[in-house]
User: Fold this.
Amino acid sequence: MLADIVAAMKVLIVDDNAPTRTLAKEILTAAWAQVDVRECGDGRAALMELAWRPDLVLVDYEMRPMDGAAFTRQLRAGGTGADPRTPVIMMTGHADREHVIKARQAGVDGIVAKPLTIKSLLERVQAVLTRPRDVVILGDRAAG
Assistant:
């Protein structure tokens, strides 16, 4: 049951847009009050938060200095302090085929298009947590 999965779940939200981080956090905490959320403004800062061992990562596609695909590849490569199989949902305003393929090749488990809606984010979180995607760790890159 999803309620059991999200009990005391730790979520890392990575986006260079503060209002998007706030919206994602509000959606998650409204749905599941017990969710513990941390926020970062880019992939490099998020790498430092991985020692916290989040249960789920929501990451933006386009950020500087490190984008969401590069962050995900780094996570999947291991050695970050987090489980390399940690579920990752890519949040993007670029949901075209090319960006989706690149995100999947980086190792993301799911994609949600921006602007975020309550329904789209919660459905994607539920799908990723209840039907995990197999992730193959390939040294410095991931495939799935």
